[in-house]
Automatic annotation (TrEMBL):
Alphabetic keyword roster: Thiamine pyrophosphate
Protein name, as recorded: Thiamine pyrophosphate-dependent acetolactate synthase large subunit-like protein
Gene Ontology CC: one annotated term: acetolactate synthase complex
Cofactor(s) this protein cannot do without: thiamine diphosphate
Single annotated GO MF: flavin adenine dinucleotide binding
Organism for this UniProt entry: Micromonospora parathelypteridis
Residue span, Thiamine pyrophosphate enzyme N-terminal TPP-binding domain: 1-100
Family: Belongs to the TPP enzyme family.
Amino acid sequence: MRVAEVVGRVLHGHGARYVFGVVGSGNFHVTNALVAAGARFVAAAHEGGAASMADGYARTSGTVGLLSVHQGPGVTNALTGLTEAAKSRTPMVVLAPEATAPRSNFFIDLPALATSVGADFHRIRATHAAEDAGAAYRAAARGATVVLGLPLEVQSAVTEPWSGPAPAVAPTSATAGQVEPLLAALRAARRPVFIAGRGARAAREPLTRLADSCGALLAVSAAAKGLFAGNPWNLDVAGGFATPLAAELIGAADLVVAWGSTLNMWTTRHGELIPPSAVVVQVDHDPAAFGVNRPVDLTVAGEVAAVADAVLARLSAGSTGAVDAGTGGWRTPELAQRIRDHGRWRTVPYRDEGGSARAGAPATVDPRTLSAALDDLLPPDRTVVVDSGNFMGYPSMWLDVPDVAGFCFTQAFQSIGLGLASALGAAVARPDRLTVAAVGDGGFVMSATELVTAVRLALPLLVVIYDDAAYGAEVHHFGPDGHPLDTVTFPETDLAAIARGYGCDGLTVRTVDDLEPVRRWLAGPRTRPLVIDAKVCAARGSWWLEEAFRGH
Protein backbone atom coordinates (compact mmCIF):
# COMPACT_ATOMS: atom_id res chain seq x y z
CA MET A 1 0.00 0.00 0.00
CA ARG A 2 1.29 3.48 -0.86
CA VAL A 3 2.00 5.95 1.95
CA ALA A 4 -0.55 8.46 0.61
CA GLU A 5 -3.27 5.82 0.83
CA VAL A 6 -2.27 4.85 4.37
CA VAL A 7 -2.37 8.49 5.48
CA GLY A 8 -5.89 8.92 4.06
CA ARG A 9 -7.13 5.74 5.74
CA VAL A 10 -5.59 6.64 9.10
CA LEU A 11 -7.05 10.15 9.17
CA HIS A 12 -10.49 8.86 8.25
CA GLY A 13 -10.14 6.11 10.84
CA HIS A 14 -9.42 8.72 13.49
CA GLY A 15 -12.58 10.64 12.62
CA ALA A 16 -11.94 12.91 9.63
CA ARG A 17 -15.20 13.11 7.68
CA TYR A 18 -14.69 16.26 5.61
CA VAL A 19 -11.59 17.59 3.89
CA PHE A 20 -11.45 21.09 2.38
CA GLY A 21 -8.96 22.15 -0.22
CA VAL A 22 -7.77 22.70 -3.76
CA VAL A 23 -6.26 19.65 -5.45
CA GLY A 24 -3.00 19.65 -7.38
CA SER A 25 -0.47 17.02 -8.24
CA GLY A 26 1.11 17.00 -4.78
CA ASN A 27 -2.07 16.28 -2.83
CA PHE A 28 -4.02 14.38 -5.48
CA HIS A 29 -3.40 10.88 -4.14
CA VAL A 30 -3.82 11.60 -0.41
CA THR A 31 -7.06 13.51 -1.07
CA ASN A 32 -8.45 10.67 -3.17
CA ALA A 33 -7.42 8.21 -0.45
CA LEU A 34 -9.49 10.15 2.05
CA VAL A 35 -12.48 10.14 -0.30
CA ALA A 36 -12.07 6.43 -0.96
CA ALA A 37 -12.06 5.82 2.79
CA GLY A 38 -15.38 7.67 3.17
CA ALA A 39 -14.56 11.35 3.67
CA ARG A 40 -16.26 14.08 1.64
CA PHE A 41 -14.05 16.51 -0.27
CA VAL A 42 -15.20 20.14 -0.44
CA ALA A 43 -13.47 21.96 -3.29
CA ALA A 44 -12.78 25.63 -2.63
CA ALA A 45 -12.04 28.32 -5.20
CA HIS A 46 -8.80 29.29 -3.47
CA GLU A 47 -6.56 27.72 -0.85
CA GLY A 48 -7.05 30.73 1.42
CA GLY A 49 -10.78 30.07 1.40
CA ALA A 50 -10.22 26.35 1.94
CA ALA A 51 -8.15 27.05 5.07
CA SER A 52 -10.90 29.21 6.54
CA MET A 53 -13.52 26.62 5.63
CA ALA A 54 -11.60 23.94 7.52
CA ASP A 55 -11.23 26.36 10.44
CA GLY A 56 -14.93 27.24 10.51
CA TYR A 57 -15.89 23.59 10.20
CA ALA A 58 -13.68 22.59 13.13
CA ARG A 59 -14.96 25.37 15.39
CA THR A 60 -18.60 24.66 14.62
CA SER A 61 -18.48 20.87 14.66
CA GLY A 62 -16.14 20.54 17.63
CA THR A 63 -14.05 18.04 15.66
CA VAL A 64 -10.75 18.19 13.78
CA GLY A 65 -10.80 20.08 10.50
CA LEU A 66 -8.79 18.85 7.53
CA LEU A 67 -7.16 21.02 4.86
CA SER A 68 -5.53 19.59 1.73
CA VAL A 69 -3.36 21.81 -0.49
CA HIS A 70 -0.75 21.60 -3.22
CA GLN A 71 2.94 21.93 -2.43
CA GLY A 72 4.60 25.35 -2.48
CA PRO A 73 2.07 27.99 -3.57
CA GLY A 74 -0.84 25.91 -2.33
CA VAL A 75 0.60 26.13 1.16
CA THR A 76 1.48 29.81 0.96
CA ASN A 77 -1.94 30.70 -0.48
CA ALA A 78 -3.47 29.14 2.65
CA LEU A 79 -1.13 30.91 5.05
CA THR A 80 -3.43 33.64 6.41
CA GLY A 81 -6.25 31.22 7.17
CA LEU A 82 -3.73 28.80 8.65
CA THR A 83 -2.37 31.56 10.90
CA GLU A 84 -5.85 32.47 12.12
CA ALA A 85 -6.47 28.81 12.96
CA ALA A 86 -3.16 28.42 14.79
CA LYS A 87 -3.66 31.58 16.84
CA SER A 88 -7.19 30.40 17.69
CA ARG A 89 -5.94 26.95 18.72
CA THR A 90 -8.31 25.42 16.18
CA PRO A 91 -8.01 21.62 15.97
CA MET A 92 -6.89 21.25 12.37
CA VAL A 93 -4.54 19.14 10.26
CA VAL A 94 -3.03 20.69 7.14
CA LEU A 95 -1.97 18.12 4.56
CA ALA A 96 1.06 19.91 3.14
CA PRO A 97 3.00 18.14 0.39
CA GLU A 98 6.74 18.83 0.52
CA ALA A 99 9.19 19.31 -2.28
CA THR A 100 12.30 18.49 -0.28
CA ALA A 101 14.93 19.26 -2.93
CA PRO A 102 16.26 22.76 -2.08
CA ARG A 103 16.52 23.69 -5.77
CA SER A 104 12.90 22.76 -6.51
CA ASN A 105 10.78 25.77 -7.43
CA PHE A 106 8.19 24.35 -4.98
CA PHE A 107 10.60 24.22 -2.05
CA ILE A 108 9.68 26.09 1.12
CA ASP A 109 10.90 25.50 4.67
CA LEU A 110 7.71 23.95 6.04
CA PRO A 111 8.90 23.45 9.63
CA ALA A 112 9.98 27.08 9.82
CA LEU A 113 6.71 28.23 8.24
CA ALA A 114 4.67 26.30 10.79
CA THR A 115 6.74 27.62 13.68
CA SER A 116 6.45 31.20 12.43
CA VAL A 117 2.65 31.18 12.73
CA GLY A 118 2.38 29.13 15.93
CA ALA A 119 1.37 25.81 14.35
CA ASP A 120 2.83 22.41 15.20
CA PHE A 121 4.82 20.56 12.56
CA HIS A 122 4.77 16.81 11.97
CA ARG A 123 6.26 14.88 9.03
CA ILE A 124 5.26 11.55 7.52
CA ARG A 125 7.98 8.91 7.31
CA ALA A 126 7.70 6.00 4.89
CA THR A 127 8.46 3.45 7.60
CA HIS A 128 6.05 4.95 10.16
CA ALA A 129 3.29 6.44 8.00
CA ALA A 130 0.34 5.19 10.05
CA GLU A 131 1.99 6.12 13.34
CA ASP A 132 2.89 9.63 12.13
CA ALA A 133 -0.54 10.36 10.65
CA GLY A 134 -2.27 9.18 13.82
CA ALA A 135 0.02 11.28 16.02
CA ALA A 136 -0.74 14.39 13.95
CA TYR A 137 -4.49 13.85 14.23
CA ARG A 138 -4.33 13.25 17.98
CA ALA A 139 -2.22 16.40 18.47
CA ALA A 140 -4.88 18.38 16.59
CA ALA A 141 -7.65 16.82 18.67
CA ARG A 142 -5.91 18.13 21.78
CA GLY A 143 -6.23 21.68 20.46
CA ALA A 144 -3.41 22.35 18.00
CA THR A 145 -3.22 23.34 14.36
CA VAL A 146 -0.83 20.81 12.81
CA VAL A 147 1.03 21.18 9.52
CA LEU A 148 1.62 17.61 8.36
CA GLY A 149 4.52 17.45 5.92
CA LEU A 150 4.05 14.89 3.13
CA PRO A 151 7.33 14.61 1.20
CA LEU A 152 6.52 13.90 -2.44
CA GLU A 153 8.92 10.98 -2.67
CA VAL A 154 7.54 9.47 0.55
CA GLN A 155 3.91 9.62 -0.57
CA SER A 156 4.56 7.18 -3.38
CA ALA A 157 6.65 4.78 -1.29
CA VAL A 158 5.27 1.35 -0.39
CA THR A 159 4.57 0.74 3.29
CA GLU A 160 2.64 -1.59 5.54
CA PRO A 161 -1.17 -1.31 5.28
CA TRP A 162 -3.21 0.03 8.18
CA SER A 163 -6.56 -1.29 9.34
CA GLY A 164 -7.03 0.45 12.72
CA PRO A 165 -8.64 0.79 15.13
CA ALA A 166 -7.72 4.37 16.04
CA PRO A 167 -6.83 4.99 19.68
CA ALA A 168 -9.09 7.41 21.52
CA VAL A 169 -7.79 10.76 22.74
CA ALA A 170 -8.07 10.61 26.52
CA PRO A 171 -8.88 13.83 28.40
CA THR A 172 -6.59 15.04 31.15
CA SER A 173 -8.02 14.52 34.63
CA ALA A 174 -7.58 16.77 37.63
CA THR A 175 -6.59 15.65 41.12
CA ALA A 176 -7.89 16.90 44.43
CA GLY A 177 -4.50 18.41 45.24
CA GLN A 178 -4.50 20.46 42.05
CA VAL A 179 -7.89 22.03 42.73
CA GLU A 180 -7.54 22.70 46.46
CA PRO A 181 -6.26 26.31 46.02
CA LEU A 182 -9.13 27.05 43.64
CA LEU A 183 -11.59 25.53 46.07
CA ALA A 184 -10.25 27.76 48.84
CA ALA A 185 -10.57 30.84 46.62
CA LEU A 186 -14.19 29.98 45.83
CA ARG A 187 -14.92 29.53 49.53
CA ALA A 188 -13.53 32.97 50.34
CA ALA A 189 -15.24 34.82 47.47
CA ARG A 190 -18.51 36.69 47.78
CA ARG A 191 -18.66 38.14 44.28
CA PRO A 192 -17.13 35.48 41.97
CA VAL A 193 -17.24 35.72 38.18
CA PHE A 194 -16.38 32.93 35.75
CA ILE A 195 -14.97 34.02 32.37
CA ALA A 196 -14.95 31.09 29.95
CA GLY A 197 -12.87 31.19 26.77
CA ARG A 198 -12.39 29.04 23.70
CA GLY A 199 -10.79 26.33 25.85
CA ALA A 200 -14.08 25.92 27.72
CA ARG A 201 -16.38 25.55 24.72
CA ALA A 202 -17.21 21.95 25.63
CA ALA A 203 -17.67 22.58 29.35
CA ARG A 204 -21.03 24.35 29.68
CA GLU A 205 -22.65 21.82 32.03
CA PRO A 206 -19.83 21.37 34.58
CA LEU A 207 -19.16 25.11 34.68
CA THR A 208 -22.85 25.90 35.11
CA ARG A 209 -23.20 23.39 37.94
CA LEU A 210 -20.11 24.75 39.68
CA ALA A 211 -21.29 28.35 39.29
CA ASP A 212 -24.65 27.39 40.81
CA SER A 213 -22.84 25.81 43.75
CA CYS A 214 -20.70 28.85 44.53
CA GLY A 215 -22.93 31.70 43.39
CA ALA A 216 -20.76 32.86 40.48
CA LEU A 217 -21.91 35.03 37.60
CA LEU A 218 -21.07 33.77 34.12
CA ALA A 219 -19.28 35.58 31.30
CA VAL A 220 -17.36 34.56 28.21
CA SER A 221 -14.67 35.80 25.89
CA ALA A 222 -15.94 36.64 22.42
CA ALA A 223 -14.64 33.31 21.11
CA ALA A 224 -17.00 31.45 23.47
CA LYS A 225 -20.12 33.57 22.95
CA GLY A 226 -23.25 31.46 23.37
CA LEU A 227 -21.70 29.06 25.88
CA PHE A 228 -24.12 30.12 28.63
CA ALA A 229 -27.02 31.19 26.41
CA GLY A 230 -30.32 31.03 28.27
CA ASN A 231 -28.74 30.97 31.73
CA PRO A 232 -30.28 33.65 34.00
CA TRP A 233 -26.84 34.61 35.38
CA ASN A 234 -25.21 34.99 31.96
CA LEU A 235 -23.51 38.37 31.44
CA ASP A 236 -22.51 37.40 27.87
CA VAL A 237 -19.25 38.73 26.45
CA ALA A 238 -16.60 40.35 28.63
CA GLY A 239 -14.19 42.96 27.32
CA GLY A 240 -14.78 45.35 24.44
CA PHE A 241 -18.19 43.89 23.64
CA ALA A 242 -19.42 43.89 27.25
CA THR A 243 -22.70 45.61 28.00
CA PRO A 244 -22.53 48.44 30.55
CA LEU A 245 -24.08 46.11 33.12
CA ALA A 246 -21.56 43.33 32.42
CA ALA A 247 -18.66 45.79 32.73
CA GLU A 248 -20.08 47.08 36.01
CA LEU A 249 -20.49 43.62 37.54
CA ILE A 250 -17.17 42.20 36.37
CA GLY A 251 -15.57 45.37 37.70
CA ALA A 252 -17.04 44.62 41.14
CA ALA A 253 -15.85 40.98 41.31
CA ASP A 254 -13.61 39.83 44.14
CA LEU A 255 -12.70 36.60 42.30
CA VAL A 256 -12.33 36.05 38.56
CA VAL A 257 -11.75 32.51 37.32
CA ALA A 258 -10.61 32.28 33.70
CA TRP A 259 -11.62 28.90 32.29
CA GLY A 260 -9.74 28.16 29.06
CA SER A 261 -9.20 31.89 28.52
CA THR A 262 -5.87 33.69 28.50
CA LEU A 263 -7.55 37.00 29.50
CA ASN A 264 -6.08 38.87 26.57
CA MET A 265 -6.38 42.61 26.08
CA TRP A 266 -9.71 42.26 24.23
CA THR A 267 -11.33 40.22 27.00
CA THR A 268 -10.07 42.54 29.77
CA ARG A 269 -10.17 45.92 27.97
CA HIS A 270 -6.40 46.18 28.23
CA GLY A 271 -6.55 45.05 31.85
CA GLU A 272 -9.01 47.75 32.92
CA LEU A 273 -12.09 45.51 33.26
CA ILE A 274 -10.92 43.30 36.15
CA PRO A 275 -10.44 45.25 39.40
CA PRO A 276 -6.91 45.24 40.88
CA SER A 277 -8.27 43.90 44.17
CA ALA A 278 -9.76 40.76 42.59
CA VAL A 279 -8.09 37.37 42.95
CA VAL A 280 -7.50 36.01 39.44
CA VAL A 281 -7.32 32.26 38.72
CA GLN A 282 -6.47 30.71 35.37
CA VAL A 283 -7.49 27.16 34.44
CA ASP A 284 -6.07 25.71 31.22
CA HIS A 285 -4.96 22.37 29.83
CA ASP A 286 -1.80 24.05 28.53
CA PRO A 287 0.52 25.37 31.28
CA ALA A 288 2.26 27.52 28.65
CA ALA A 289 -0.88 29.67 28.58
CA PHE A 290 -0.57 30.71 32.21
CA GLY A 291 0.04 34.41 32.69
CA VAL A 292 0.78 35.10 29.03
CA ASN A 293 -1.35 38.25 28.94
CA ARG A 294 -1.52 39.38 32.57
CA PRO A 295 -0.35 38.25 36.00
CA VAL A 296 -2.59 35.71 37.75
CA ASP A 297 -2.72 34.72 41.40
CA LEU A 298 -3.46 31.00 40.99
CA THR A 299 -3.13 28.49 38.16
CA VAL A 300 -4.68 25.06 37.69
CA ALA A 301 -3.46 22.78 34.90
CA GLY A 302 -6.06 20.43 33.41
CA GLU A 303 -8.97 20.14 31.05
CA VAL A 304 -11.61 22.71 32.00
CA ALA A 305 -14.45 20.21 32.38
CA ALA A 306 -12.29 17.86 34.48
CA VAL A 307 -11.19 20.65 36.81
CA ALA A 308 -14.74 21.96 37.22
CA ASP A 309 -16.00 18.45 37.98
CA ALA A 310 -13.21 17.90 40.51
CA VAL A 311 -14.00 21.15 42.35
CA LEU A 312 -17.71 20.40 42.31
CA ALA A 313 -17.08 16.91 43.70
CA ARG A 314 -15.20 18.45 46.61
CA LEU A 315 -18.05 20.86 47.27
CA SER A 316 -20.63 18.09 47.02
CA ALA A 317 -18.65 15.94 49.43
CA GLY A 318 -19.54 18.36 52.21
CA SER A 319 -16.66 20.83 52.24
CA THR A 320 -17.50 23.77 54.44
CA GLY A 321 -17.28 27.38 53.47
CA ALA A 322 -18.82 27.26 50.01
CA VAL A 323 -21.20 30.09 49.18
CA ASP A 324 -24.88 29.16 49.26
CA ALA A 325 -26.10 30.36 45.88
CA GLY A 326 -29.58 30.90 47.25
CA THR A 327 -28.73 33.01 50.30
CA GLY A 328 -25.20 34.39 49.91
CA GLY A 329 -23.03 36.21 47.42
CA TRP A 330 -24.62 38.42 44.84
CA ARG A 331 -27.10 36.09 43.16
CA THR A 332 -30.10 38.03 44.42
CA PRO A 333 -33.57 38.39 42.87
CA GLU A 334 -32.82 42.06 42.29
CA LEU A 335 -29.67 41.29 40.31
CA ALA A 336 -31.45 38.61 38.31
CA GLN A 337 -34.02 41.23 37.30
CA ARG A 338 -31.29 43.69 36.28
CA ILE A 339 -29.70 41.04 34.09
CA ARG A 340 -33.07 40.28 32.46
CA ASP A 341 -33.74 43.97 31.86
CA HIS A 342 -30.28 45.21 30.89
CA GLY A 343 -28.11 42.18 30.11
CA ARG A 344 -28.43 42.38 26.31
CA TRP A 345 -27.37 45.14 23.96
CA ARG A 346 -30.91 45.11 22.57
CA THR A 347 -32.02 46.70 25.86
CA VAL A 348 -29.40 49.51 25.84
CA PRO A 349 -30.86 52.76 24.39
CA TYR A 350 -29.13 54.48 21.46
CA ARG A 351 -29.84 57.28 18.98
CA ASP A 352 -30.46 55.95 15.47
CA GLU A 353 -27.95 57.58 13.13
CA GLY A 354 -29.32 56.27 9.86
CA GLY A 355 -29.97 58.90 7.23
CA SER A 356 -32.88 59.37 4.84
CA ALA A 357 -32.17 60.18 1.21
CA ARG A 358 -31.71 63.93 0.85
CA ALA A 359 -29.70 66.49 -1.14
CA GLY A 360 -28.59 63.81 -3.55
CA ALA A 361 -27.20 61.56 -0.82
CA PRO A 362 -28.69 58.06 -0.73
CA ALA A 363 -30.28 56.68 2.42
CA THR A 364 -28.23 54.60 4.86
CA VAL A 365 -29.22 52.33 7.75
CA ASP A 366 -27.80 52.40 11.27
CA PRO A 367 -25.89 49.10 11.71
CA ARG A 368 -27.44 48.65 15.18
CA THR A 369 -30.95 49.06 13.80
CA LEU A 370 -30.11 46.70 10.93
CA SER A 371 -28.73 44.06 13.29
CA ALA A 372 -31.69 44.28 15.66
CA ALA A 373 -34.13 43.92 12.76
CA LEU A 374 -32.26 40.88 11.47
CA ASP A 375 -32.21 39.36 14.95
CA ASP A 376 -36.01 39.57 15.01
CA LEU A 377 -36.37 38.26 11.46
CA LEU A 378 -34.00 35.31 11.36
CA PRO A 379 -34.78 31.91 12.91
CA PRO A 380 -33.28 31.36 16.39
CA ASP A 381 -31.55 28.18 15.21
CA ARG A 382 -28.61 29.89 13.54
CA THR A 383 -24.83 30.00 13.23
CA VAL A 384 -23.37 33.51 13.15
CA VAL A 385 -19.88 33.88 11.65
CA VAL A 386 -18.25 37.30 12.01
CA ASP A 387 -15.42 38.63 9.86
CA SER A 388 -13.03 41.30 11.15
CA GLY A 389 -13.45 45.04 10.68
CA ASN A 390 -15.05 48.18 12.04
CA PHE A 391 -18.52 46.61 11.78
CA MET A 392 -17.76 43.44 13.75
CA GLY A 393 -19.34 44.41 17.06
CA TYR A 394 -22.80 44.94 15.62
CA PRO A 395 -23.56 41.33 14.63
CA SER A 396 -21.54 40.07 17.60
CA MET A 397 -23.59 42.07 20.11
CA TRP A 398 -27.02 42.40 18.51
CA LEU A 399 -27.45 38.92 16.97
CA ASP A 400 -28.27 36.24 19.54
CA VAL A 401 -27.00 32.69 19.10
CA PRO A 402 -28.52 29.49 20.53
CA ASP A 403 -25.29 27.99 21.89
CA VAL A 404 -21.52 28.16 21.63
CA ALA A 405 -21.53 26.23 18.34
CA GLY A 406 -23.69 29.02 16.94
CA PHE A 407 -20.93 31.65 16.99
CA CYS A 408 -17.68 31.69 15.02
CA PHE A 409 -15.37 34.65 15.56
CA THR A 410 -12.45 34.99 13.14
CA GLN A 411 -10.45 37.62 15.04
CA ALA A 412 -7.29 35.99 16.41
CA PHE A 413 -5.12 37.30 13.56
CA GLN A 414 -7.29 40.38 12.92
CA SER A 415 -7.36 39.71 9.19
CA ILE A 416 -10.35 40.83 7.20
CA GLY A 417 -11.67 38.56 4.47
CA LEU A 418 -11.86 35.25 6.37
CA GLY A 419 -15.50 35.34 7.46
CA LEU A 420 -17.26 34.26 4.27
CA ALA A 421 -15.20 31.10 3.79
CA SER A 422 -15.34 30.33 7.52
CA ALA A 423 -19.13 30.50 7.23
CA LEU A 424 -19.08 27.93 4.45
CA GLY A 425 -17.18 25.53 6.70
CA ALA A 426 -19.66 26.21 9.49
CA ALA A 427 -22.56 25.54 7.11
CA VAL A 428 -21.05 22.19 6.14
CA ALA A 429 -20.75 21.32 9.84
CA ARG A 430 -24.34 22.36 10.66
CA PRO A 431 -26.53 22.18 7.54
CA ASP A 432 -29.57 21.99 9.84
CA ARG A 433 -29.07 25.65 10.81
CA LEU A 434 -29.14 28.92 8.92
CA THR A 435 -25.57 30.16 8.65
CA VAL A 436 -25.19 33.94 8.74
CA ALA A 437 -21.91 35.41 7.48
CA ALA A 438 -21.48 38.98 8.74
CA VAL A 439 -18.78 40.78 6.75
CA GLY A 440 -17.63 44.27 5.87
CA ASP A 441 -17.50 45.50 2.30
CA GLY A 442 -13.69 45.27 2.26
CA GLY A 443 -13.66 41.71 3.54
CA PHE A 444 -16.44 40.72 1.16
CA VAL A 445 -14.58 41.98 -1.91
CA MET A 446 -11.46 40.11 -0.77
CA SER A 447 -13.33 36.81 -0.44
CA ALA A 448 -16.21 37.05 -2.95
CA THR A 449 -14.66 34.35 -5.14
CA GLU A 450 -15.85 31.75 -2.61
CA LEU A 451 -19.45 32.58 -3.55
CA VAL A 452 -18.78 30.07 -6.33
CA THR A 453 -18.29 27.44 -3.62
CA ALA A 454 -21.36 28.66 -1.74
CA VAL A 455 -23.54 28.18 -4.83
CA ARG A 456 -22.09 24.70 -5.43
CA LEU A 457 -22.80 23.61 -1.86
CA ALA A 458 -26.43 24.84 -1.97
CA LEU A 459 -26.48 25.15 1.82
CA PRO A 460 -28.65 27.65 3.75
CA LEU A 461 -26.39 30.73 3.81
CA LEU A 462 -27.17 34.39 4.39
CA VAL A 463 -24.36 36.90 3.81
CA VAL A 464 -24.84 40.32 5.40
CA ILE A 465 -22.43 43.00 4.16
CA TYR A 466 -22.09 46.00 6.46
CA ASP A 467 -21.17 48.31 3.58
CA ASP A 468 -19.79 51.75 4.50
CA ALA A 469 -17.79 52.08 1.25
CA ALA A 470 -14.55 52.31 3.20
CA TYR A 471 -12.07 50.58 5.42
CA GLY A 472 -14.04 51.96 8.32
CA ALA A 473 -11.53 51.22 11.06
CA GLU A 474 -8.94 53.44 9.42
CA VAL A 475 -11.51 56.15 8.63
CA HIS A 476 -12.58 56.42 12.25
CA HIS A 477 -9.08 56.04 13.66
CA PHE A 478 -7.21 58.51 11.45
CA GLY A 479 -9.97 60.84 10.26
CA PRO A 480 -10.45 62.77 13.52
CA ASP A 481 -6.77 63.79 13.41
CA GLY A 482 -7.16 65.36 9.98
CA HIS A 483 -5.31 62.74 7.96
CA PRO A 484 -6.34 62.34 4.30
CA LEU A 485 -8.65 59.37 3.76
CA ASP A 486 -8.55 58.94 -0.02
CA THR A 487 -6.63 55.67 0.32
CA VAL A 488 -9.33 54.06 2.50
CA THR A 489 -12.60 55.37 1.05
CA PHE A 490 -14.21 54.14 -2.16
CA PRO A 491 -17.10 54.89 -4.53
CA GLU A 492 -20.34 53.11 -3.74
CA THR A 493 -20.39 49.69 -5.41
CA ASP A 494 -23.38 47.47 -6.19
CA LEU A 495 -22.20 44.43 -4.23
CA ALA A 496 -25.60 42.76 -4.59
CA ALA A 497 -25.12 42.73 -8.36
CA ILE A 498 -21.69 41.12 -7.91
CA ALA A 499 -23.34 38.42 -5.78
CA ARG A 500 -26.00 37.80 -8.42
CA GLY A 501 -23.22 37.37 -10.97
CA TYR A 502 -21.91 34.46 -8.92
CA GLY A 503 -25.35 32.83 -8.90
CA CYS A 504 -26.60 34.07 -5.52
CA ASP A 505 -29.71 36.07 -4.76
CA GLY A 506 -28.75 39.68 -4.08
CA LEU A 507 -30.52 42.44 -2.17
CA THR A 508 -29.62 46.08 -1.48
CA VAL A 509 -30.82 47.44 1.86
CA ARG A 510 -30.93 51.12 2.84
CA THR A 511 -33.73 50.98 5.42
CA VAL A 512 -35.17 48.17 7.53
CA ASP A 513 -38.22 48.18 5.26
CA ASP A 514 -35.95 46.87 2.49
CA LEU A 515 -35.52 43.62 4.46
CA GLU A 516 -38.98 42.31 3.51
CA PRO A 517 -37.58 40.07 0.70
CA VAL A 518 -35.48 38.32 3.35
CA ARG A 519 -38.69 37.03 4.91
CA ARG A 520 -39.69 35.48 1.59
CA TRP A 521 -36.23 33.94 1.10
CA LEU A 522 -36.38 32.43 4.57
CA ALA A 523 -39.74 30.83 3.75
CA GLY A 524 -38.34 29.19 0.64
CA PRO A 525 -35.92 26.30 0.12
CA ARG A 526 -32.86 28.50 0.90
CA THR A 527 -30.71 26.53 -1.55
CA ARG A 528 -29.37 29.70 -3.22
CA PRO A 529 -27.30 31.93 -0.94
CA LEU A 530 -28.77 35.37 -0.25
CA VAL A 531 -26.35 38.28 -0.10
CA ILE A 532 -27.55 41.50 1.55
CA ASP A 533 -25.63 44.63 0.61
CA ALA A 534 -26.60 46.84 3.57
CA LYS A 535 -25.57 50.45 3.00
CA VAL A 536 -24.76 51.42 6.58
CA CYS A 537 -24.12 54.90 7.94
CA ALA A 538 -20.55 55.75 8.83
CA ALA A 539 -21.27 58.59 11.23
CA ARG A 540 -19.30 57.26 14.16
CA GLY A 541 -16.45 54.94 15.01
CA SER A 542 -16.79 51.89 17.19
CA TRP A 543 -15.30 51.73 20.65
CA TRP A 544 -14.12 48.16 20.10
CA LEU A 545 -11.90 49.34 17.23
CA GLU A 546 -10.54 52.09 19.44
CA GLU A 547 -9.53 49.28 21.80
CA ALA A 548 -8.00 47.35 18.91
CA PHE A 549 -5.87 50.24 17.72
CA ARG A 550 -4.53 50.68 21.24
CA GLY A 551 -2.89 47.29 20.70
CA HIS A 552 -1.08 48.32 17.48
